[in-house]
Fold:
Amino acid sequence: MNETRRDRDAEGRARNARPRDGLGRPLPYGTPGVERQPEGVVRTPAETLREAQRLLDAGMPFHAHEVFEDAWKSGPEEERELWRGLAQLAVGLTHSARGNTAGGARLLRRGAGALAPFSRSGPHGISVHGLSDWARALADRVESGPTVDAAAEAPRLLG
Structure:
């Protein structure tokens, strides 16, 4: 890889080819990393939730965020904010585990806010109230405390 030029995918789009760790941080070229989530995968809501929960439980919230992002981009318009809110929760956990407590807390609260309109319906069995409570409590903790362990803090998506 010529380090003065940007990595490109097969279609010529800028795409960083550096390996990443479990929290999505770039590693030096040639270093073994965690396999990336494929982009643009269309899944059913149940498949999305199952895969995202697996990644969260494994301490890989950055990768779970990518799964939610696929759902938000491919799902029905009326559910986009739901999936985007879940993606924000995963990114908030990612930042909190990386030590960016201010950014983590902000994203956790933003994600909880994005889920609020879905609190009555709990679509797809998602525990909207439980996730919102989890996100706000974690945001309060990370603002005043140490970096968190992503796997230990993984939320339960289904209620």
Notes: The longest helix spans residues 80-98.
